Amino acid sequence: MASSVLLGAWVAAGLTLCMFSFLYKDNPFFRFGEHLYVGISMGYTIVRIYYDVMVKSLYTPVMQEGKWWFLIAAILGLLVLTRFIPKISWLSRISFAVIVGFGSGVAIPRIISSNILQQVQGTLKPILNAGQSSFGMAQFNALLILVGVVTVLIYFFFSIEHKGPIRVAARIGIYFLMINFGAGFGYTVMARMSLLIGRFDDLILFASRDYGYASLVLLGMIAFGLFMWERSSTASFGPDQDPRAAVSDARDEHPPQ
Amino acid sequence: MRELADKLLRMDRRVIFVLIALATLIPLLRPIGFPIRISPEVKRIYDHIESLPAGSVFVLSLDFDPASKPELYPMAVALLNHAFKRDLRVVGLTLWVTGTGMAEKVVSGIASEYGKRRGVDYTFLGYSPGGTNVIINMGQDLAATFPTDHYGVRTADLPVMQGVTSLRQVDYVVSLAAGTPGVESWYVYGKEKYGFELGGGVTAVIAPGLYPFLDTGQINGLIGGLRGAAEYETLIGMKGKAVAGMDAQSATHFIIIGLILLCNLFYFLTPGTRIRSFGSAQNSPGSPREAGR
Predict the structure, then answer these.
(1) Is A210 at the interface with chain B, CB within 8 A?
(2) What confidence tens digit (pLDDT) does each residue in B237-266 have?
(3) CB B249 to CB A41 under 8 A?
(4) Nearest-CA residue of chain B relative to A60?
(5) Looking at this predicted complex, what is its ipTM?
(6) Given B192, B244, B256, which is nearest A110 (Cβ)?
(7) pTM, two decimal places
(8) Alpha-carbon distance B154 to nearest alpha carbon in chain A (angstroms)
(9) B181 preceded by cis ω (within 30°)?
(10) Helices (H), chain B
């Protein structure tokens, strides 16, 4: 096995275990992994932006292909940075005006068309076509969607008091919303478990002999490190005198205004 | 009963972590083999790729970063396997800058397994800045949006791109997305205007929000989360990481459903019980505050 792959496996397993160590409690291993993640992802993004944006989309077209008008976009981009110089920060408004104007012009018609008009059409079409065929499951689903859309809209309609039939409809709307939240929560649990499975899958792979039992060795090292860290904390401050806990408690009692 | 409820409701949360870890670990080490039922929305993507003749242009937009790898990477592997098996012309790209390296690795890795030649049978265009604007630009002039591919070769000169000047010549687009820009962006700014067929593969978190698009036919199919990936792997007869993970997924779901039911049962059976109140248990082992130290 290539040494780079082996090294990558050890780093991946080690950092995964560092992050999982938070499940015990906040600790230096977790903080090391957390800070490294933030730094590396930012560094990676900057390098990619440099090559894919600055070189590929600006330097090459301007210097090698003579597309000088690309500089207009570059200047507009640079104007955003004037926010950091108070005297000329007003220049950034030019860039923001272009961004907002262009963004709105592009987005509004498309969003209205696809997220409103086509959705309304999709909601009503099966109902309008219901007369052409017998009432089956598809028609029932369409009716259910229609009832859900209307009752949820009524629930969020605050211009009239919710009483009588409006109250009943709003109440039904709440149930539809709750079902939606439940489905969303269920899917979220599934997603989070999938992430856990992904990491466990890699840890099991890296625990094999081919990878030098990386997961097992590093798990032992981190467990030992946590034990020593706990011991040194207890020895220095006593079991109930951890200064970090005191700071945390003080913050909870007097939250910043 | 009240004592037992009190005890369980004040249980150290690390016990739950251990339970979940075991429920994940044991099925991964000793697979059970729960059956995987294919849902119609996943089957529709499979059927559409099956219906494409060899040489059709298939764009796979890998709009995710390593944070969503466990869910979306198996989908990418399964779709690429299917596309290369069908001898489609595969064009990979990403709208997420942090996913560039991973996306390139999966496209070129699967291509090499099928002996496909870069630039001839497939290419990876890489990342272009602009998010949704990239889609609009691709609809107007693909070579202007990506003047070169990820490897620095001029896009217009690539044999795999012959006859493809914009998204109008693309036969099928699948966006594997973990957020925005993603499937919705491809629909709103791409499909509706340039008329190609679109399918989506997403993380489980955002899947429920895309079902309205599926119902209206705005996307022709949807692969949701690890379960969707496992279904696709089953369809193409490949036992990949998603299928392997489904047993663990089912086991953890059993545990979570059980804990939710148990908590609700105790909550209703013992009215007045305070669940981990900050008065008495704020610094107990495993409490949120204790973990924050």
Answers:
(1) no
(2) 998 889 989 999 999 999 999 999 988 888
(3) no
(4) B147
(5) 0.84
(6) B192
(7) 0.85
(8) 11
(9) yes
(10) 2-9, 13-29, 40-51, 69-85, 100-113, 132-140, 142-145, 183-185, 192-194, 211-215, 225-235, 241-269, 288-291
